[in-house]
Amino acid sequence: MTERPYWIAAGTVGWGAIVFWKAAELPQFDQYAHVGPGFMPSAVGLGLVVLGLLLALQIYRGVPFEEQGAEDVSEDHKVNYMALGLAAAASALPMLTMKPLGFVITCTGCFVLVAAAFKSRRWHLDLVLGFGFSLLCWWLFRKLGVQLGGLLPMMGV
Amino acid sequence: MDAITGLMNGFSVALQPQNLFWAFVGTFMGTAIGVLPGIGPALTIALLLPVTVYIEPTAAFIMFAGILYGAMYGGSTTSILLNTPGESGSMMTALEGNKMARQGRGAAALCTAAIGSFVAGTIGTLGITFLAPPIAELAFIFKPQDYFALMLLAFLSVSVVMGTSKVRGFIALFLGLSLGVVGIDKQTGLQRLTFGVPDLMDGVEMTVVLVSLFAVGETLYVASRFGFQKPNLNPLSGGIWMTKEDWKRSWKPWLRGTGFGFPIGALPAGGAEIPTFLSYTVERNLTKHPEEFGHGAIEGVAGPEAANNAAAAGVLVPLLTLGLPTSATAAILLAAFQNYGLQPGPLLFINSADLVWGLIASLYVGNLMLLILNLPLAGLWVRLLFIPRPYLYAGILIFSLVGIWGVSNSWVDLAMMAGVGVLGYMMRVYDFPIAPVLIGLILGPMAEVQMRRALAVGQGDPTVFVSTPLSAVLIAVSVLILIVPAMLHWRRTRKIDMPDETAGV
Amino acid sequence: MIKAVFAAALAFSLSAAAPALADPAVVMAPGGAGGGYDAMARLPFEAMSKEGIFTDGATFTNKGGAGGTIGLAEFVGANRGNDNAVMSMGVILVGGILLNSSPVTLDDVTPLVRLTNDTGVVAVATDSPIKTVDDLVKAMKENLGAVSIGGGSAGGVDHIVMALIAKESGLEPARLNYIPYDSGAEAVTALGGGAVTVAVSGVSEFKPMADAGRIRIIAVTSEGRVEGIDAPSLKEAGLNVVVGNWRGIVGAPDMSAEGRTMWLDRFAKMHDSTAWKDILAKQGWEDAYLAGDDFVAFLNDEKTRIGAILKEAGLTK
């Protein structure tokens, strides 16, 4: 597989450029230290641009990108985009629901989505388990004083 | 020999049944909460601060000491078993520890972590007992340029965790550095790369990045490539105890890790991270089994774990002897002292000798208790890996949310969790090492602050960086680290006359 | 087994969610747990509940960041017109609003009381040739850059003290070689070890080190002298600089007149109570009680004064 992911190099250069551009708005020098607040971000931004270009060169030469090993990863590294989507949805869900629906409902949703991503087929059992576990976490850590918010903030509980 | 009589008195306090009970409560809670991502000893003690109203000071401090050591230890469990370190101090443990767990040697990794923590904690406590005043002096000796040189050394040692491709390793490092500059510049009060978002003014929260890169990234990655087959590996296949070989390979790293952790932990700007980075590097360079590093070398667990526990002990040195809180945890302990109307410092040993020696004695007791609590549990913890994968990873995500949401209640942090989680996934797919991102994020701002401080004091004169003996030595060592491998490499390639693929790209 | 756990969890959570008390106060601390704003939020309520002044309980929220302005913004956003909502604050928030150009300011809230104050101290290393404030000013006039100054965050109270000293001595506050430290512990070791020439911090942070002979306090920032410290105030030394790190309580935006009177009454009672006096003693806080319209006037003065000096120090536009 000779994949040529030029977009990674482009992304690196792009982020580096943003950092450099934002840093350029800051003073580069300081009256006593000489090194001002803009120095470090400028250097980092420049470094990222150079590294991104080096990576592009490597990609051009056909450097291999081997996936990292992890536990329970199937040998053939076949990507299940459905599962990836479900897991990504689980990590994005809190952005949408944490404020209006609260910790317990959000975590129940995450639990069901992750379980589904891992091919659990009993979603109603997952729902019950997820709810119980989320509620337990919420209650326990709230007792300990961790601020996890109300049970149902939308309704003011 | 005041210390010995004091300590004996201390043990008579610490060994009273009710104080033993509080030590147990503390170590247990510390371990349990340390397991959670993002919630470390500082927050735990802060949350428990109100109990100081109800229980007497000796009991409270004995409990807090248990939490301090327990939380340091607890963080290693999830790092090893699930590759999800909960705080920066246990990140290095995850590198080798998780690889060991995947070979069925999780229990041995947990054991070497537990015993290493015990050894380091005990030596550290001995250090507090007998060496506290001279060690505390280090705080006055270290100048900004010395800190900078120490951080430079830690930075250079990063290259060993860079993985197979140097370019990708450096991209990861610079990514971390770029996240590190976000926020209000401490020296001038100017905003850097905040894009006008108020939640970013205090910088990118390190624990959010840590938890998202490791836990969320891992969940996405494993989910997308989850095989239908049963786990083909028995988590206990490597036994539940350390082998003779493991012991032989662990004891030196324990001692060396302690040697890094205790003095650096005692420095006002030291922390637990730098000693773990240094310890990992040193073990990787000294090992007789370099081929195992990156695939589960026990030295890489033993050293950093000892280092972070020794650093936790080191933090107590300036607190007790000078009344100086040098870390968030110590600042909260100081608040607890003040809740009882006590002022830590030289006078504390005179005015409240019972309390101080009781506290020190309880550190020994708490340490032993942790060992007793955790060694048998190692076999039990490993069984966590028998939990069906859907529930295991769902549970990890919920714990991550407790840490991320519970600490800040910030929507921006939740968004960052999702974004950095995807980044962690991509990095796994395209083989970018994860650790350099965090090293850059942690060390970058520290090194920048010290560099600018040193230059400000020296009014811009660059020779300030080698103006003290310590900084000169550390800088020289850094330069050697940079040059020697390159020279060896050059000689080797000339001899064999064949370009080295992995190092060349 | 799982069902039993679930049932137990549900039962517990219901008991936790059920409102146990009538209308608890909603209290915001714009700083993390264990910090100054946190204590200023919790301890007055501890005293009030102990003395039976206000016993309906309180829910505390910690929201630190950006000099306290993030907590302020959330407090203002969520509690408009809520007579039950109060927030701890202090001089650092006054500066923080300016430094972070916060869109939400203290004009949005209802000032109630100032409760405590922490006097600042100016200190040098024990073996420093600088022995008095005059020596310090002389050294600064000779070579301003050579006098490196350690203290808290840029634009914080410590920085303001030095900026005012510079201004009073006819020097440019923007030319100070000010080096911010994250904690008093870092600043005091830097000073004791000779990394900086002079340092500014609170009495509580520097006094133990001065008593131990590590550093020498050359001035305090209060009107007069401070008991137990052998150093003049800056005012006595001829510089008209009085700065305190004070803390207090503000109420929700658009709090009703009755609500304001109710809280002022509670704080007045609390201030006279022994429980509060015990807390002051234990925390080592100076009593700086100032309530109602007097506090409003004081707050306005502080805003003007701090705004002007931050501008002169080149920290705000």
From TrEMBL, chain A:
Transmembrane segments: 6-24, 36-59, 79-96, 101-118, 124-141
InterPro entries: DUF1468 (IPR009936)
Keyword RNA-binding listed: no
Domain DUF1468, residue spans: 7-144
Cell cycle listed as a keyword: no
Keywords: Membrane, Transmembrane, Transmembrane helix
Protein name: Membrane protein
Organism annotation: Shinella yambaruensis
Biological classification of the source: Bacteria, Pseudomonadati, Pseudomonadota, Alphaproteobacteria, Hyphomicrobiales
UniProtKB/TrEMBL annotation, chain B:
Keyword terms of this UniProt record: Membrane, Transmembrane, Transmembrane helix
Keyword GTP-binding attributed: no
Domain DUF112: 20-438
Transmembrane segments annotated in the record for this chain: 20-49, 61-82, 107-132, 144-162, 167-184, 204-223, 315-337, 357-378, 390-408, 414-443, 464-488
Keyword Calcium: no
Alphabetical list of Pfam families matching this protein: TctA (PF01970)
Name of the protein this chain belongs to: Tripartite tricarboxylate transporter TctA
TrEMBL record, chain C:
Species per Swiss-Prot/TrEMBL record: Shinella yambaruensis
Alphabetical list of SUPFAM superfamilies matching this protein: Periplasmic binding protein-like II
Range of residues in the leader sequence: 1-22
Keywords: Signal
Family stated for the protein in its record: Belongs to the UPF0065 (bug) family.
Name of the protein this chain belongs to: Tricarboxylic transport membrane protein
Xref: Pfam families: TctC (PF03401)
